[in-house]
Amino acid sequence: MKKDSTNTLAPKQLVLTAALLAVLCGGLALSARGQSAQAQAGDMAMTMAKPTPQMQKVLTALGSLGGKPIEFLTPEQARQQPTPANAVKVVLRNEGMSTAPMPVAGIVNMKIPGPAGPIPIRVYTPAGSGPFPVLVYFHGGGWVIAGLNTYDSSARALANAAGYVVVSVAYRQAPENKFPAAAQDAYAATRWAMKNASKINGEPRTVAVAGESAGGNLATVVALMARDKHQQMPIYQVLVYPVTNYAFDTASYRENVHAKPLNRAMMQWFWKYYLPDSAAGANPYASPLRAKSLSGLPPATIIAAQIDPLLTEGRRYADRLRDAGIRVHYREFYGVTHEFFGMGAVVDEAKAAVSFAATDLHNAAGGR
């Protein structure tokens, strides 16, 4: 009669299994030092992160464009490198789709007064009669590269989805203009929007701020400045994978040390050119995560990408805001990388992220 071997292990197997469990438990015990269970789970999720098929198409297209690692380039050379926006167009062409930008009801290029001269802006107006709520938007690029054209798709998508007039700001960039030049321009542009909203068919009492990456940093810094100066506050802030701290030792920096299109070496390069010296990195207008208090800031939507060295600091900033009593709507999008937000033409998660932000902006404006 054949013996039932279900759930039965031979002596050698028992020894090996016990040894394996001991190694695993020991590793978990070591990893638990100084970390919460939630942090461990987050680290494991980052370790296992893989791009979705749509995201991978964009990354493959970006690689095909022959760009050089910007950390080995001068800022002038880096500004000439292909961007994720260029890669999206490659994917669209490969799939036989139009590369034409999403239409909006109106676009006007203007210049407004700034602390060191005129600031170029681009105003996107949605369909409808207005006056509309206003969203002052700051593009990414590590304060050094990129511009209004690079992030045109994000501004268009937000104008249409949220029903806001979007004011996209071409703030001064480093290293020609180091910190705090970009923050000063961002604040000046927001004050201009609040005082002159009626000139762009906007509502001056309903002005929000938004930004991606370095632009997310500028958006929340504008709110900090307004609070500290006792001026009119933005009604809301949308922070898309924001830079919040001058540091490179978080879990997401370790897990995404060689990620594309953003990695640790690139962020070190950006900070090197942005700051006048390393001591400036402790300034809360450079590293808002280091602010003594975040109380009194507007409610926020924070959007994070799983495959991104900035993931941890965005999550920590959300926690700091909550601790200060600020209402925060945080969402992490899985299987996508830094820069995904403006890729709605080819990446479904980007469409969902824009819709997520637009819903919160719509509610912030009283459902308008």
For this entry, give a set of tags.
12 helices; 8 strands; 368 residues; eight-stranded mixed beta sheet; Rossmann fold; alpha/beta
Task: Write a structural description.
This protein is of the alpha/beta class and 368 residues long. The chain has a single domain (56-364), classed as Rossmann fold. It contains twelve helices and eight strands. It has an eight-stranded mixed sheet, sandwiched between helices. A hairpin with a 6-residue loop joins β1 (106-112) and β2. α6 (152-162) packs across α12 (348-364). The chain starts with 10 loop residues before the first helix and ends with a helix. The model is unreliable at 1-47 (pLDDT under 50).
Quick structural overview:
This protein has 368 residues and is of the alpha/beta class. The protein has helices spanning 11-32, 37-47, 53-64, 75-78, 84-94, 152-162, 181-196, 214-229, 251-255, 264-274, 311-323, 348-364; strands at residues 106-112, 119-125, 132-138, 165-169, 202-212, 237-240, 300-307, 328-337.
